[in-house]
Amino acid sequence: DVKVTQSSRYLVKRTGEKVFLECVQDMDHENMFWYRQDPGLGLRLIYFSYDVKMKEKGDIPEGYSVSREKKERFSLILESASTNQTSMYLCASSSATGRGDYGYTFGSGTRLTVV
Amino acid sequence: RKEVEQDPGPFNVPEGATVAFNCTYSNSASQSFFWYRQDCRKEPKLLMSVYSSGNEDGRFTAQLNRASQYISLLIRDSKLSDSATYLCAVMNSGGYQKVTFGTGTKLQVIP
């Protein structure tokens, strides 16, 4: 089974801090995604990447950036954390070639609180 | 109109009951469809893909109606362990397997 690992389960950061969320997958998946999940709003796509060094904006990219230097690792960066970025952050990966039927595998999530 | 819409519920059903959820989508060019299950404070997990011909996995049946642009999930003989939030997901054309999720339907199976 593919495993997607997020580096932290819980994080508390101060307003204005630069925050790094790391995600690693071990199944050689081409596609990786960052979502945030908020009550009543569901999962919203922040950024995704379909290859090393490639990135595309999702629906809510403002205040975030990403990095994909290696195929297995996709990092989400909050340039200057704000309280409205308090949320559950979920990383996911999927195969571009149809293995696993294109379904996503999610990491266990990082619950970020910005104070 | 939201791209993917679900009734948030909650659906409170007794053990052993049959329950069905629908999910509507707005983009007629959507290619692939999925149901995910999410337990409280956990990540979503893929429950099943939804094929044009419909598909079944044990007590779970998923169907796609392209003409009316909705997918459905039927759970037969509900178990307490089925209590969770069920998210539908739609993949549109345009590459990269980008998926839009519904906000989920909460199911509570009661003894």
Summarize this structure as a short list of keywords or feature phrases:
heterodimer, A: 115 residues, mainly beta, seven-stranded mixed sheet, four-stranded antiparallel sheet, 11 strands, 0% helix, B: 111 residues, five-stranded antiparallel sheet, 53% strand
Quick summary:
The complex is a heterodimer of chains A (115) and B (111). With 115 residues, chain A is mainly beta.
Can you describe this structure?
The complex is a heterodimer of chains A (115) and B (111). Chain A is mostly beta strands and 115 residues long. Chain A contains no helices and eleven strands. In chain A, the strands form two sheets. In chain A, strands 2, 4, 5, 6, 9, 10 and 11 form a seven-stranded mixed beta sheet that branches. The N and C termini of chain A lie far apart (37 Å). The mean pLDDT of chain A is 92. In chain B, the strands form two sheets. In chain B, strands 2, 4, 5, 9, 10 and 11 form a six-stranded mixed beta sheet that branches. In chain B, strands 1-3-8-7-6 form a five-stranded antiparallel beta sheet, with no helix packed on it. By secondary structure, chain B is an all-beta fold. The model of chain B has no long low-confidence stretch (mean pLDDT 92). Chain B has strands at 4-6, 11-14, 19-25, 32-38, 45-50, 55-57, 60-65, 70-75, 84-91, 99-101, 105-110.
Given helix and strand content, the structural type of chain B is mainly beta
Q: In percent, how much strand structure appears in the residues of chain A? A: over 45%
What structural class do you assign from the helix and strand content of chain A?
mainly beta
End-to-end C-alpha gap of chain A: 37 Å
Low-confidence stretches of chain B: none
Number of β-strand runs of chain A: 11
> What is the rounded distance between the termini of chain B?
37 Å
Largest sheet of chain A: 7 strands, mixed
Mean pLDDT of chain A: 92
Shape type of chain B: globular
